[in-house]
Specification:
- By secondary structure, the protein is mostly helical.
- Helix content is 88%, strand content 0%.
- It contains six helices and no strands.
- The longest helix has 51 residues.
């Protein structure tokens, strides 16, 4: 195991320690000499502007990526939701059911014997199809 003294000795050989100490020193220097701090701020104004604007990432997101994503979302909404889901799947199936119900409504007379005849015909057709599938 490493002792705390050895850890302190090792930390003095690493760069982040000196970055931290230089930050403390510069803060103390600016606190003591306000004129120097004001001149330094003027010198680094472009860097300060870039840092305050967060490397212009907000401008990129607001002006480019957000409208692009809204456009893609609008296209997907129109095509996927309105055309496919609402148009074909939901309303399309309702239209198919309405069409078939119009056709089959004409076939129904309301009499029991015609219903029984169609049921027997359906069973015969079903058995015929099943036997052809099984034995062929």
């Amino acid at each position: 195991s490493i002792s705390p003294i050895e850890m302190i000795k090792h930390s003095l050989t690493e760069l982040p320690v000196y970055f931290g100490l230089s930050g403390i020193f510069i803060a103390w220097l600016f606190h003591k000499n306000k004129i120097f701090a004001a001149k330094f701020v003027k010198v680094i104004r472009p860097v300060n502007y870039i840092l305050e604007r967060k490397f212009f990432m907000d401008d990129l997101y607001i002006n480019l990526l957000a409208p692009l994503m809204r456009g893609i979302g609008s296209i997907l909404w129109r095509f996927g939701d309105m055309l496919l889901i609402d148009g074909l799947i939901v309303n399309g199936s309702a239209k198919v059911v309405a069409w078939y119900s119009k056709v089959f409504r004409k076939l129904q007379s309301g009499y029991v014997n015609s219903s029984a005849t169609f049921m027997v015909l359906g069973v015969i057709i079903l058995l015929t199809l099943c036997t052809k599938l099984i034995f062929n």
